[in-house]
Each structure stands twice: as C-alpha cells, then as structure tokens.
Design a protein that fits this description.
GO biological process, one term: amino acid catabolic process
Pathway: Carbohydrate acid metabolism; D-glucarate degradation; 2,5-dioxopentanoate from D-glucarate: step 1/2
Strand content: 15-25%
Pfam families: MR_MLE_C, MR_MLE_N
InterPro entries: DgoD-like, Enolase-like_C_sf, Enolase-like_N, Enolase_C-like, Mandel_Rmase/mucon_lact_enz_CS, Mandelate_racemase_C, Mandelate_racemase_N_dom
Radius of gyration: 20 Å
CATH topology of the largest domain: TIM Barrel
Catalytic activity: D-glucarate = 5-dehydro-4-deoxy-D-glucarate + H2O
CATH class of the largest domain: Alpha Beta
Strand order of the largest sheet: 5-6-7-8-9-10-11
Number of helices: 13
C-alpha cells in the first residue's frame, strides 16, 4: 500500500444564501480536495479546510511518492519541520496541508482494509454525532430569500424543528445593532421552546461590549457563547459577568487550563495536523477537563472525517457545528449532508464512508476558477465588512 500519486483540487462550495457574521457576509467557501492514489489503485480522500492549498499539497507530495500509506509518522517527518518555530519556513501552512494529506491516507487505508476509520482508531463510542442547527441574518441568494428580520429568523428555526427535528440551535451575534439582536434572541427563544440555544460572536467584541451584550441576552437562557471576545484572558475576565459556557477556535490547552477559560476548544482536523494529532489532542483535553468539538464549514469529505473521529473519541460528546444544511453544492455523492433529529449517523462504509462525485468536483472547481477564493484576502471583495472590533 504505497503512494503512487497525490492530486489536489481547489473548489468553491456555495451557500444557498450569503450569511452574515461579525466580519461581514460570505457567500461561498474555498476548500482543497485531496486524492491520494495507491499503487493498488485505491484512492483516499482528504480536505484542506482553509482555502486553496493545492500548491502546498503538491509541494509536499513530491517527497511522499513510494511511501507506505500506513507510515503516517514517517510521512509527517518528511514534510513538516520538527521545530516549534522557524524564520525559514511556514510551519502552519505545512501542518495544514499535511493534515489534509493525512486524512486521505486514513481513507485509503480504510478502503484497502475494508474498514471505517473509526475501526482503525480503536472502535467507536457512538453511532450518532450531535450537531447544532445554525441560524443568522442571511442575504438573498439565487433561489433563497434569506432572513432579514428577527421574526424571519425565528420562523426559520421553527421550520427546522418541523422539517428536521432540530434539537440544538446556534446563531450569530455581533452582526447588527444590539437592540435588534436582543429582539432576535427573544423571538428565537419563543420559537424553539426549551431547546438548547447557543450563540457565536466570532471574537469581535471588546470586553466592555461583551459584558453589556451578555447581560442583555442573558434572560434568553443561552448555554454557550463562542468567542464573545478574542483572547483567553478576556474570556477569563468575563467569568464574573456570565455563567454561560465559553468556547474558542484558538488552540492553547495549557493556557486554557491555567485561566479556566475557555471551557471548550473548537477547531478542525487540519489545524492540529490531521486525524492522529487531533486524537492525541482530544485525549489531552479529556485529561484536563477541557471540552472539544469541531467547527463548521467543511465539505462532505471533511465532515465525514469529523464524524469518524467524533465516533472514535470518547471526549467528543458535545454537539459540534455544521453548515451542511446551508450548502448549495458538495463534492461527495448524495451531498450536502442533511442532519436529522439533531445530528448525523456515523458512516459505516470503508474509510471515511463517503464517495467522491467527480462531476461535482469539477463543477465546484470550475466555480473556483470563475469566482476566485472565498473568503478573499481583500475583505471588501467578499466579506463586505471591516475587521474593526466593536
């Protein structure tokens, strides 16, 4: 089971309607789909979640041809520098690119042995992975009206309950004025009854603004607030103002333990360097009683990997995030995935348990070539907003 070739294809996954978050609005996400083909003709799938990493992936691939797909540690040593920091290389870019390749290696091995990845990781703790149902102010899309008022958002939440038995709701804060967002919280709480409600401010508030905002929305029984402020230190300072659980996309377990905040770290498989490294990190989180869950935004390839790891990792028991319901396209057969009754079942097929749709891959790649990358480096082009903290 040796590597014959590695392919990397940048794609754009569009939303049915652009959604607003604290930095503006976004209509599409750029991902890199990776295919690792073995000498036996087995093709493993992987994904880089943070845009067009095709050049990075192909640069690393030159050093990997002919290696056994099971020698993941050896493969990592070949392409990711061992030092913690260096002025001569982009360690983050290489770690993210390797994480996408490593995902494909696991998928190829699973397909070769006719076993799901959760089996290769030691077995599964759950057959069903809970996921949150997202809501936000959304702009009109090509065939979707979006949601422009608190009442329209509340009606969307009601529809998700009626049509999909949604259980846990998570919405965007820090996108419009606070009075309107308080009204949104009131309408949503009335619409969802006693179902769990979480919010996400994407770290845009200053500490004084966060204190004021959390005091205003506290009556609506919010269980989690993700990144009401940017730093761990600011989150620790919020403890005396709220009993909401706090989560962050920043990864610093040692500091989280020292400060007692955030309660949970939310990330993807690329950021930590792949499935094996993420499993090790999750075990460390469990040891120190810091939560872990996955964030939203991957294609069906990355999302399937989340499901496999969530099944195998005992500590990933809390609901992770997903935007699959909002996607207008995907690169896997049968995609986008549609959560039911608050989550998705873990695929039992070999490897990731999903099959690449080659026509869809080319369609999404052509979209990338026509539109360029989303989010763009220039925030004015695709975000439509500034990065100033409020």
């Amino acid at each position: 089971m040796k590597i014959r070739t590695i392919r990397a294809t940048p794609v754009n996954i569009p939303f049915v309607a652009p959604y607003r978050f604290s930095y503006g609005a976004i209509a599409s996400l750029t991902k890199t789909i990776i295919e690792v083909e073995t000498t036996e003709g087995v093709v493993g799938l992987g994904e880089c979640a943070d845009g067009d990493r095709s050049a990075d992936v192909l640069t690393l691939a030159e050093r990997l041809i002919g290696l056994d797909i099971r020698l993941i540690s050896e493969i990592e040593r070949r392409v990711v520098p061992g030092m913690a920091c260096t002025p001569w290389d982009n360690l983050l870019a290489k770690r993210r690119a390797f994480g996408g390749i490593e995902m494909a290696l696991w998928d190829a091995r699973g397909k070769s042995e006719n076993l799901p990845i959760w089996h290769l990781l030691g077995g599964k703790h759950r057959d069903f992975v809970p996921l949150t149902e997202y809501f936000a102010f959304r702009l009109p899309g090509p065939s979707h009206p979006g949601e422009a008022t608190p009442l329209e958002i509340a009606r969307f939440c009601t529809r998700m309950i009626d049509e999909h038995d949604a259980r846990i709701f998570e919405g965007k804060l820090a996108t419009v004025d606070l009075d309107t967002e308080v009204e949104m919280m009131r309408e949503v709480r009335a619409a969802i009854g006693n179902r769990e409600l979480r919010m996400d401010a994407n770290g845009v508030w200053t500490l004084p603004t966060a204190k004021r905002a959390l005091t205003r929305v506290a009556p609506y029984d919010i269980s989690w607030i993700e990144e009401p402020v940017e730093s761990y230190e600011e989150m620790a300072a919020l403890r005396e103002f709220t009993d909401m659980n706090l989560s962050s996309h920043r990864i610093d377990l040692r500091r989280a333990v020292e400060l007692g905040a955030p309660d949970t770290i939310v990330t993807n498989l690329n950021e930590l360097g792949g499935i094996a490294a993420t499993m090790a990190f999750i075990r460390s989180c469990e040891t120190f009683n810091v939560g872990f869950r996955f964030h939203s935004g991957e294609s069906g390839v990355g999302s399937a990997a989340y499901l496999q790891v969530s099944a195998a990792a005992r500590h990933v028991h809390d609901a992770s995030q997903t935007l699959q319901r909002w996607y207008a396209d995907d690169v896997v057969e049968g995609g986008p995935m549609q959560p039911k009754s608050g989550g998705l079942s873990v695929p039992d097929g070999p490897g990731l348990g999903v099959v690449l749709d080659h026509k869809a891959l080319m369609r999404c790649h052509e979209r990338y070539r026509d539109e360029g990358a989303f989010p763009a480096e220039s925030t004015s082009a695709h975000y439509g907003g500034s990065f100033l903290k409020r």
